[in-house]
Specification:
single chain, 493 residues, mainly alpha
Length: 493
Amino acid sequence: MLAGMQTEQDSASSGGAGGAAGGAVAAAPVDRATLRRVIVASSVGTLFEWYDFYLYGTLAVFFGTLFFPAENETAGLLSSLATFGAGFAVRPLGALLFGRIGDKIGRKYTFLVTIVTMGLSTALIGLLPTFRQIGWAAPALLVALRLAQGLALGGEYGGAATYVAEHVPDARRGFFTSFIQTTATLGFFLSLGVIGATRSLLGADAFKAWGWRVPFLVSFALLAVSIWIRLKMSESPLFAKLKRDGHVSRNPLRESFTNPVNLRYVLLALFGATAGQGVVWYTGQFYALTFLQKPLGLTWQLAYSIVALALLIGTPLFIVFGSWSDRVGRKWVMLAGMAAAAITYVPIYKGMTALANPGLALSVVAELPAAHFAGLVLLLAIQMVWVAMVYGPIAAFLVELFPTSIRYTSMSLPYHLGNGWFGGFLPLIAVALTTSETVKGWLGANVIYAGLAYPIAICLMSLVIGGRSLPETRHLLIDTAQRPPGDEANGPR
């Protein structure tokens, strides 16, 4: 697909939420070779950051006994998931910190800082002593490194999406930014592959004793590659033009969140788009993986294989729906994905139970009939369709919603609140609901589906708010230094 990148700059029409209000002009054309380097460099570096961040999430079930007391398995799992969520909790802070740097100093410099922070904090997790060795200092150190990861990722995604969007043709922004969208899933897939290969090669005992460290230590090598790639990147042409024209924001935080017009779009982006998108993403991947292992009881080999195959099937769809949003619009593609998820989650997960462990036997499920295995892959692949619908267009949508001078800051905060808070805490909230004695009393054997109430409720909230109030952005030109005064009536420009 990269080979077919256009060299010409397509003109966007003046329709949609804001049109070309305020004298926006299309960015200067970028040659094909430069476009290819921009996409590859941004995507590879971001993929490595997602790999780093999701290693812990992939091992969350396993880590409960490594870094927390082993006496209570449920408490250990919840503690492990809470630590996983801690990284998400600080992502909005990272968005503010690095968004400000990116809007004042530049996209390239911020890229380098985030990748070094992420790579080092991930690799150091591989060197941590366990709870058995140093007691409560182990989870304390683990939480500290998870917080560092969250800060770094809070600055990474907004920078990558902004950097790519500020290079590419206006009429194909959804298509080109969708390559960035694939990196989260590919990073998750890479973490599954590295962990699975390490566990298979070393065996269960060696992996539990020390082999779990290997996937984290691999980050040292990935960090070296990422730094080399990012040092070769040049500054975004729109930001470079902004600096030449003297339009760089003096205070991106103030301009983003005290300007009532901009703040309105930040809140609409959060509650009408990224919150719903975040829970769909994490339900279809992380919660599905946890659900297959607990309560359905599949071995990690089976669960990893099923999720990995679904990821392979679903990943190209990010580009399909990103490209589709260039033709039909971002808003309704995303909202349709949320609606489909809310309607189908309960029957999908009941279907997963019927195929994986219909009697919910206490014994571990190590084998499945081929038809049941294929059925589970299909049910997860369907969830990946919903994930691709909500996630494929979101980068282009957020970039187009805000002006260049405060774009990095303004788009990063709602994205990381939606994904980091609404989405990131989903596994913890879902497991807490399914293990609650009160909820068990209400639902009985159906308590295993209680965790789905949370993503369904958030999807419905985003459908109502987004359907009523979100603007369509696909026609907007993004070379706008700042929003013209009194432009609220014309949309985000």
